[in-house]
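Researcher: Final request for today, and then I'll write up notes for the group meeting. The sequence and the SMILES for magnesium ion follow.
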Amino acid sequence: MVISYLYLPIQFICHVGLDNAGKTTILYKLSLGEVVKSTATIGSNVEMVKYKNIQLEIWDLGGQQNLRPFWATYYKGADAIVMVVDSTDRARVGVAKSELFNLLENEELSKVPILVLANKQDLKDAMTVEEMSTVLSLHSIRNHDWHMQACCAINGIGLMEALAWIHARTKGGGGNS
Ligand SMILES: Nc1nc2c(ncn2[C@@H]2O[C@H](COP(=O)(O)OP(=O)(O)OP(=O)(O)O)[C@@H](O)[C@H]2O)c(=O)[nH]1
Ligand SMILES: [Mg+2]
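Model: Predicted protein-magnesium ion complex:
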């Protein structure tokens, strides 16, 4: 029913990650169920996505280098951060790592769970979750609840698991936020 839908609690999520990682493609795959041809995001896109007993207000932020300093202006009140990484972008995985560890230091995010999406798993040269976890040094993260999920924004594989991980960390799903 429309009315009960409107009253579902809202969780505030930010999609961050380098340009071309697939953040916008994931946003529209989740909200529309379709692959939308995207152009580089300048600023942000926002969409509501219903999942079980919550609504996710997902802010998709532009990932180009000159836009990354603005990510932090969206962090206040965030219930989860989703960092999207292009699993084929070996050349820039070090940059992605540095952006990830930079956001982990942000005080606004001190209690916020971090989901890392290893996107573009449909491409044959994609790094595996194990390789990505190693190159991103995820196991050295001690001060955040984090998880890595393999996914593909084109066929949607892994995206429901991503939502389930976030849901489990909300009050409705048994978590604290
Ligand atoms: N093969 C494949 N291509 C993908 C996948 N996800 C996204 N893409 C493609 O990657 C390109 C960049 O996707 P976007 O969603 O625009 O990337 P973005 O992270 O939003 O980039 P910025 O807005 O510049 O930060 C597009 O051509 C997408 O079609 C995927 O899982 N597999
Ligand atoms: Mg985008």
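Model: The two ends are 25 Å apart (CA to CA). The chain has five helices and six strands.
Researcher: Thanks, that's everything.
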